Amino acid sequence: MTTVAPAPVRRKWMTAYALAMIGVAAGWFGPIQILLPEQAARLAGDGGKEALLALVTAWGAAASMVANPLWGMLSDRLGARRPIFLAGTAVGIAGLLTLSAANSTPVMVAGWMLVQAGLNGPLAALAAMIGDRVPEQQRGTVGALFGVAQIVGVILGTAVAVAAGDETIGYIAVAVAVPALGATLLIINREGVIARSSSFHWRRPGGQFAWAWIIRFLLNLVNALVLVYLLYYLSDRVRVDDAATWVLVLTVVNVLCAGIVGFAGGMLSDRWERRRIFVVAGALVLALGTALMALVPTVSMALVASVLIGMGWGAYIAVDMAVITQVLPDAETRATMLGVANIAGTLPQLLAPVLAAPIVTMLGGYRTLYLVTAGFALIALALLPRLKTLS
């Protein structure tokens, strides 16, 4: 079958696409950075908050890891992205509302699992739209939007959580933001003709896809390890008075740096037709930023580290989606394989608290945690030569 290259997308579509991704990310990261940690502290107290947060986020990430490829497979079978976007958003909202009323560990776990499982629907649809709608020469720019919008969603979700000042109101506000920000894209996006298969046929991914997956996994694990205990790091290690406000400040700094570097990097990668140099820069700067968090636990150095981590993450997300879409096996299983690729983003959420909790409590504390985190970034860098087809 001859594949016709998609026509270039316009700024209106890009803007709507970015807003939809911001909404999905707000639904994810608002709870992760503020609402879930505060809820865990309320339910389990200072002695058990780390363990409860690890339990909740681990179950949620497990649900996410299964849900993303399943949503992608269903999207490929249907030959459409809009129904997946709508259905997943509805499930995610149900989870957020469940969390707003959670007063026990089982309800908290169930609510976060619903959020994770549900919001993987619109995430899978948005990822597949890049392959469906965006030509190769624009994938650096739009792929950067995909990544930058996620981190803008982090600040929006965090800001909503801080401004609400109440868990219930915070969850409800985020539940409203998710569909509101996605509505424009649903209205203006043309589905077109998407390759459809009447049955699912697994096509074994090539070695390039596998190495791209591993590198993506490692750098997402770095990001997850930075985020998962940031509130506790600031309160227990840096010992700031208002840790939640400082989480917001550091998030703003991180997002501004990542957004500027990510969007500029995406456009430059399209213009230069180069992706590898951005991954190299991203891994190196992420390693430096996390090492500073480990070695100099002060407010001023936390700000410097936030700048570096933002710049490093921005450099990587500038080309992340362009790299992944370049190594997909075929168009007919695009959403399915992007779902598999997205496990590299969700599995770190499962592993981060599992790795972080024993390190923080028994194996050297936050110093060891962030040195290990820097090590993962350097491993990703060492594996990059395996991507032989990457320009």
From TrEMBL:
<feature type="transmembrane region" description="Helical">
    <location>
        <begin position="83"/>
        <end position="103"/>
    </location>
</feature>
<feature type="transmembrane region" description="Helical">
    <location>
        <begin position="302"/>
        <end position="323"/>
    </location>
</feature>
<keyword id="KW-0472">Membrane</keyword>
<keyword id="KW-0812">Transmembrane</keyword>
<feature type="transmembrane region" description="Helical">
    <location>
        <begin position="277"/>
        <end position="296"/>
    </location>
</feature>
<feature type="transmembrane region" description="Helical">
    <location>
        <begin position="142"/>
        <end position="163"/>
    </location>
</feature>
<dbReference type="Pfam" id="PF07690">
    <property type="entry name" value="MFS_1"/>
</dbReference>
<feature type="transmembrane region" description="Helical">
    <location>
        <begin position="244"/>
        <end position="265"/>
    </location>
</feature>
<feature type="transmembrane region" description="Helical">
    <location>
        <begin position="335"/>
        <end position="356"/>
    </location>
</feature>
<feature type="transmembrane region" description="Helical">
    <location>
        <begin position="368"/>
        <end position="387"/>
    </location>
</feature>
<feature type="transmembrane region" description="Helical">
    <location>
        <begin position="169"/>
        <end position="188"/>
    </location>
</feature>
<feature type="transmembrane region" description="Helical">
    <location>
        <begin position="51"/>
        <end position="71"/>
    </location>
</feature>
<dbReference type="InterPro" id="IPR036259">
    <property type="entry name" value="MFS_trans_sf"/>
</dbReference>
<feature type="transmembrane region" description="Helical">
    <location>
        <begin position="109"/>
        <end position="130"/>
    </location>
</feature>
<feature type="domain" description="Major facilitator superfamily (MFS) profile">
    <location>
        <begin position="208"/>
        <end position="391"/>
    </location>
</feature>
<feature type="domain" description="Major facilitator superfamily (MFS) profile">
    <location>
        <begin position="1"/>
        <end position="192"/>
    </location>
</feature>
<dbReference type="InterPro" id="IPR011701">
    <property type="entry name" value="MFS"/>
</dbReference>
<feature type="transmembrane region" description="Helical">
    <location>
        <begin position="209"/>
        <end position="232"/>
    </location>
</feature>
<feature type="transmembrane region" description="Helical">
    <location>
        <begin position="16"/>
        <end position="36"/>
    </location>
</feature>
<protein>
    <submittedName>
        <fullName>MFS transporter</fullName>
    </submittedName>
</protein>
<dbReference type="InterPro" id="IPR020846">
    <property type="entry name" value="MFS_dom"/>
</dbReference>
<keyword id="KW-1133">Transmembrane helix</keyword>
